[in-house]
Amino acid sequence: MTTYRTSETPTEVILTPQGDIVSILPGGLRERLHELIENDTRNIVIDIAASTYIDSLSLAVLVDCKNKLAEKGRTIRLLNPNDDIATIISVASLDVLL
């Protein structure tokens, strides 16, 4: 199970996964993001510097969350992807969205 360190600024909640990002695992990205979308009013930043892998379901979760946040006038963005994750995001044409 991936754990998420959380830090906050007045305008953003910053999630930092401590390991690979796999949404199917309990306590995964989907649950954490949906909790923030429903219970917080700030933008979301995900610092993935410590992650070496992201599964396709997690990418779908990010796109879904981006759309839900946009409806509320909020944003989500990724920071510090390694080369492998950046390539996956680019090949999937998600670099324009995220």
Short description:
This protein has 98 residues and is an alpha/beta fold. It has helices spanning 29-39, 56-71, 83-91; strands at residues 4-8, 12-17, 43-47, 76-79.
Account of the protein in words:
- The protein has 98 residues and is of the alpha/beta class.
- The chain has a single domain, classed as Transcription Regulator spoIIAA.
- Helices cover 37% and strands 20% of the residues.
- The protein is built from 3 helices and 4 strands, in the order E-E-H-E-H-E-H.
- The protein has helices at 29-39, 56-71, 83-91, and strands at residues 4-8, 12-17, 43-47, 76-79.
- The protein has a 4-stranded mixed sheet.
- Strand 2, helix 1 (29-39) and strand 3 form a beta-alpha-beta unit.
- Helix 1 (29-39) runs parallel beside helix 2.
- The longest helix has 16 residues, at 56-71.
- The mean pLDDT is 89.
Q: What descriptive keywords fit this protein?
A:
98 residues, alpha/beta, Transcription Regulator spoIIAA, four-stranded mixed sheet
